[in-house]
Amino acid sequence: MDLSLSTETVGDRTVVKVGGEIDVYTAPKLREQLVELVNDGSYHLVVDMEGVDFLDSTGLGVLVGGLKRVRAHEGSLRLVCNQERILKIFRITGLTKVFPIHTSVQEAVTATD
Fold first, then answer.
1. Where are the alpha helices (DSSP H) in the chain?
2. 18, 52, 78, 82: least buried by Cβ within 10 Å?
3. Who's near 105: CB < 8 A, 6+ residues apart?
């Protein structure tokens, strides 16, 4: 399966809509997108993972790297996910303490950290 990416601006946030599988083969595509957004001055990102079918450790690494990148610019990276199988990965790895995880893009965009 492939990875689909699209971006849109909602308020002062840039929303990255991700679909498909984030794995060792597709994660570099997501990494490039996040790096490009930060290089272009987008420091408040929301990664919408509602369309993600699979996430592995490489994908987690890309998300953590993206978080470090935006934090270097006083930014934020919020996740949108309510799929139990994906949320379980974040709970097992302890990353629920690192990432704000929301149930909708609207909730993520309006939330205050």
1. 27-39, 57-71, 84-93, 105-110
2. 82
3. 10, 15, 46, 48, 80
Length in residues, the chain? 113
pLDDT one-digit tens code per residue, 1-10: 689 999 999 9
Partners of 92 in beta bridges: none
Strands 76-80 and 101-102: parallel
Handedness of CA 93, 94, 97, 101 (dihedral sign): positive
Instruction: Give the three-class secondary structure for 40.
Output: coil
Give the amino acid at 75: G
- Taking 70 as the pLDDT cut, the residues of the chain under it are 1, 113
